[in-house]
Design goal:
Elements (H helix, E strand, L loop, with lengths): L5 H32 L9 H9 L10 E6 L10 E2 L9 H13 L11 H14 L4 E5 L18 E2 L2 H10 L4 E4 L9 H10 L5 E3 L1 H4 L9 H10 L3 E4 L21 H5 L4 E4 L6 E2 L2 E2 H10 L7 E4 L12 H6 L7 E2 L15 H6 L5 H10 L4 H11 L2 E2 L5 E2 L17
Parallel strand pairs: 1-3, 3-5, 6-7, 7-8, 8-11, 11-12
Antiparallel strand pairs: 2-4, 9-10, 13-14
Helix pairs in contact: 1-3, 13-14
C-alpha cells in the first residue's frame, strides 16, 4: 500500500479545512441573511424625503392607483392558509431558506408563531402610509390540482383560500379589492368561481406553472365563459416561475397559451410581462409583445409590470419604457412581498444599466427600509432610459392608474 506523502496530507488537510470553512460560511449565511433582511415596522418618511415621494403622485389620480398584483399569504394560524411542510422544514434547506426570506421581507420571523393577521396588518400599514386613497388587489392562491380534478397537497407549496381574501376585503373595504384563485380543473370550479365573484372578488389569479393549469385546454372554456360574461380580469403568470416550484410545468407559462381565453373575450393580464423564460425559438417576452401588437387583442390583453425591476428581469425595461404606445395596457403591480427582498432588486445594477439616476437611487434607497411597498411605486416612477439624442422615456402616468381594468367587473 502506498503511504501518502507529507505534502499530500497537508494539501488534503488544507482542502478539508477550506471545505469546512466554506460550509460554516454557508451555514452562517443561511442562518444570518434572513435576520439581516428582516424589515423594521413601517415608518413615515422624513419631511424632505416625503415631499419628494409625494411629488411622484402629482400627475396621477391617487384613487385610481391600484396595486394589481399583491399576495395575501399565511402559515395557517387563524386564516386557513397553508405552506408546504418542506418550506418550514430544515430537512429541505433551499425551500426552507426561501420561506425564511419571504417571512423576513414581510417583517416577520419565520418561526415566531404569530397569527397570519400580522402579515396583513403590516401590509395595510405600509399601504396607508404610501397612498391611502389607492387600493390593493389582494390575491388568493389555489392549490395544485391534477388532471383528474383532485387536489395534490404535496405539490402545493402555498395556499390562500378565497374565503380569507373575501373576509379581509369586507373588513378593509376602503383599501382592499379581493382577487380569488380557482383551479379550472376542479369538478366544482364554476360553482367556486361564481361564489367568489358574488362575494366581491374582482379578479382571478392563476400561476399555471405551479398549479398545473394549461390555459390553452378546452376544459377551461366554461371558466372563460364566466369571466367574459362578468368582465373579470384573469391575472395569469407568464414566463418561467422561480418563486415556487414549477420545474415540470414551465411550458404552461407560455403567453400564447392565453390566446384561447382572449379569443373568448376574457380580459387577460399577463403577469410580469413574460420577462423570463424561453418560448419556442425566442423569449417569452418577445412572444407576448407580438400578442400585444396584434389588433385583435388590443381591447382585452394587458400586462402587469410587477417584479420587472428585479435583476433577472430588468434587461427588458428599456423596451418597455420606450414602448409608450403600449403604456395604456401596462399595469402597475408590486408582487408584494417580493419587492421587499433586498437582493432581488438592485438599484446599483439599475444605475449601471443607466435606468436610474443616481440621485433617485439614493432617495429610493432611503425609502426602502421604511416602506418597501412605497419603494416599489417610486422606483417604477423613477425608471428611465435616455436615447442618444437626449430623449427620456419613462412609464407614463396611465401605467399606474390601473383601476380602469376592474371597473366593469360584476
Amino acid at each position: 500500500m502506498r503511504v501518502p506523502s507529507l505534502s499530500h496530507l497537508l494539501n488534503r488537510r488544507r482542502a478539508l479545512g477550506l471545505l469546512g470553512t466554506s460550509t460554516l460560511a454557508l451555514a452562517g449565511l443561511r442562518c444570518g441573511l434572513p435576520r439581516m433582511l428582516q424589515h423594521r415596522p413601517p415608518q413615515s418618511l422624513p419631511p424632505d424625503l416625503d415631499a419628494w415621494a409625494q411629488s411622484k403622485f402629482d400627475d396621477v389620480d391617487r384613487a385610481a392607483v391600484w396595486d394589481v398584483h399583491c399576495h395575501l399569504v399565511g402559515r395557517g394560524i387563524g386564516s386557513g392558509c397553508s405552506v408546504s411542510p418542506e418550506m418550514v422544514s430544515r430537512l429541505h434547506p433551499w425551500k426552507n431558506f426561501q420561506f425564511d426570506l419571504y417571512a423576513a421581507a414581510a417583517g416577520l420571523s419565520a418561526d415566531d408563531g404569530v397569527a397570519d393577521a400580522a402579515y396583513l396588518d403590516r401590509l395595510l400599514d405600509l399601504h396607508r402610509l404610501a397612498n391611502p386613497a389607492g387600493r390593493l388587489v389582494l390575491l388568493a392562491f389555489d392549490q395544485y390540482v391534477d388532471d383528474e380534478g383532485q387536489e395534490v397537497a404535496g405539490k402545493s407549496e402555498l395556499f390562500t383560500p378565497n374565503d380569507y381574501v373575501i373576509e379581509e376585503g369586507a373588513r378593509h373595504s376602503d383599501v382592499v379589492v379581493p382577487g380569488c384563485s380557482v383551479h379550472p380543473y376542479r369538478k366544482d370550479a364554476i360553482a367556486r368561481l361564481e361564489r367568489a365573484l358574488d362575494g366581491g372578488c374582482r379578479a382571478v389569479k392563476w400561476l399555471p406553472n405551479a398549479m398545473n393549469i394549461d390555459p390553452s385546454s378546452s376544459r377551461c372554456d366554461p371558466f372563460f365563459a364566466v369571466l367574459a360574461r362578468r368582465n373579470i380580469p384573469l391575472i395569469s403568470h407568464t414566463g418561467d416561475e422561480a418563486a415556487v416550484d414549477a420545474r415540470d410545468l414551465q411550458s404552461f407559462g407560455h403567453p400564447r397559451r392565453l390566446e384561447r381565453a382572449l379569443e373568448q373575450g376574457v380580459i387577460v393580464v399577463a403577469a410580469h410581462v413574460a420577462t423570463t423564460g424561453v418560448c419556442g425559438a425566442g423569449s417569452c417576452f418577445d412572444e407576448l409583445l407580438q400578442m400585444l401588437d396584434a389588433p385583435r387583442f388590443r381591447e382585452t390583453l394587458f400586462a402587469d409590470v410587477s417584479a420587472v425591476p428585479q435583476w433577472n428581469r430588468a434587461a427588458h425595461l428599456p423596451t418597455l419604457l420606450r414602448r409608450r404606445d403600449l403604456h395604456e395596457r401596462l399595469l402597475f403591480g408590486t408582487d408584494y412581498p417580493l419587492p421587499a427582498i433586498d437582493p432581488l432588486i438592485s438599484t446599483r445594477y439599475l444605475c449601471q444599466m443607466d435606468l436610474l439616476d443616481p440621485a433617485d437611487r439614493d432617495r429610493c434607497n432611503e425609502v426602502f427600509p421604511r416602506n418597501p411597498l412605497l419603494f416599489d411605486y417610486l422606483l417604477k416612477r423613477c425608471l428611465r432610459v435616455v436615447d442618444g439624442d437626449g430623449t427620456v422615456h419613462r412609464f407614463a402616468p396611465i401605467v399606474f392608474q390601473t383601476r380602469r381594468v376592474f371597473e366593469r367587473a360584476s
